[in-house]
Amino acid sequence: MDPLRSTDPEIADLIEKETRRQSAVLRMIPSENYASDAVLAASGSILCNKYSEGYPAKRYYQGQENIDEIERLATTRAKDLFGAEHANVQPYSGSPANMAVYLGLLGKGGRVLGMDLAAGGHLTHGAKASFSGLFYEVAAYGLSRESGRIDYAQARRLAKEFKPQMIFCGASSYPRVVDFAAFAEIAAEVGARLVADISHISGLCFTGQHPAPFPHVDVVTTTTHKLLRGPRGGMILCRQELAAAIDKAVFPGLQGGPHNQTTAAIAVALKEAASPDYREYCRRVVENSKALAEGLLSRGLTLVTGGTDNHLALIDAGAAGLTGKALASGLERAGIVANANKIPFDPRPAHDPSGLRLGTPALTSRGMGVAEMDLVAGLVHQTAVNLEDHAALDNIRQLVAELCLDFPAPGITPCEC
Ligand code: DSN
């Protein structure tokens, strides 16, 4: 009997059910993916038994000969992949990584210009509900009402008026290219440090599918579990001149011992991401996203900005007379898991917004291609026009289950389903 099941059958059952769920549905939340068997093996390893406060060769506890090597491998691979001078792979996730950047670059307070949460930014880019808006003076740029794209003129005007010491760019719900060079010009004009949070698009940035943030920006932050297909974690990459401040902010500023099992799994994910297969994967993620967008548009659905350049599309459910939440619930019943999301200038509240995000990273990891994306666009459309018809949604779920059987999920062996 497996040790988990014999010790804790309730948790074993729930993991088994979640395994089946992840296998049998179309996972289209753009920030989710499937980690490989190798990443899962490192993440679930005995490395969780070790405390390692500090950095390689500068630890506070003995017994680090293997841990140091693991962290060195992870940081070297991160620097090589992103073309960075320095990497810190210890942040527990994306929000702690961003928090460390605030602490390292600004200390206890300061002025920050970031992308409005309602426009597709992240909580940690200055939203009032997060530490960033609570402890720092913040101003927010947004999108052009006409195009739905980042309003760089507004960002420049706000930068000149507000004189931020730090500017955050990068988004959680933005289907178009982020112009790092344009932000660098704005930052230079006002003497601000520029930080790019590329959590959503990290893989695209070093595989030629999106412009790279370096050399335009001073600091890059990213989660490791989205397009990167690693464990849940975060990384900070920066110029050498900022390395000491960033490292000190992560430890001892904010965190204690690094999660060594996560560091090892990040190293594995970075090795996988350096392969030609991963480059091809990122190309297909974008190709699939464009095909999905085309399929949705051709069936009469409305997309914010009219399409996509990256891994996600944002449906304006309001244009179809629906709310994002109602569409997300209907899709879940139909076996398509997505999330309701604000659209630009959304008249509806955040907990029940007008939009819905759909991403292709996880479906592409299963091996689906443009033909399947058109099929999926059709299923999304069928769901949208049959939201009240539970029998129709259950039929769609059956089609989804059949499609999923043809494309097994990585990290999930058939016997686990
Ligand atoms: N929760 C992430 C997302 O879904 O985009 C951002 O942190």
- What is the count of β-strands? 14
Work out the count of structural domains: 2
Structural class: alpha/beta
Taken in chain order, the helices and strands follow as HHEHEEHEHEHEHEHEHEEHHHEHEEEHHH
Q: What value does the Rg take, in angstroms?
A: 21 Å
- Mean pLDDT score: 97
Oligomer: single chain
* Overall geometry: globular
Overall helicity? 40-55%
Strand order in the sheet with the most strands: 4-10-9-8-7-5-6
Low-confidence stretches: none
**CATH superfamily placement of the largest domain:** Type I PLP-dependent aspartate aminotransferase-like (Major domain)
The largest sheet, given as strand count, sense and whether it forms a barrel, is: 7 strands, mixed
Bound molecules: D-serine
CATH topology of the largest domain: Aspartate Aminotransferase, domain 2
Count of alpha and pi helical runs: 16
The CATH class assignment of the largest domain is Alpha Beta
Explain this structure to me?
The protein is an alpha/beta fold and 417 residues long. The chain folds into two domains: 40-273, 3-Layer(aba) Sandwich (Aspartate Aminotransferase, domain 2), CATH 3.40.640.10; 287-416, Aspartate Aminotransferase, domain 1. The protein contains 16 helices and 14 strands. It has helices spanning 3-7, 9-24, 37-43, 65-82, 94-106, 131-135, 152-162, 180-190, 202-205, 243-254, 260-273, 276-298, 324-333, 361-365, 370-385, 390-406; strands at residues 26-27, 54-55, 58-59, 86-88, 111-115, 137-141, 166-169, 193-197, 219-223, 234-238, 312-316, 336-337, 339-341, 355-359. The chain has a seven-stranded mixed beta sheet with strand order 4-10-9-8-7-5-6, with helices on both faces. The protein has a three-stranded antiparallel beta sheet with strand order 11-14-13. Strands 1-12 form a two-stranded parallel sheet. Strand 7 (166-169), helix 8 and strand 8 (193-197) form a beta-alpha-beta unit. The two termini are 17 Å apart. D-serine binds at residues 31, 94, 122, 172.
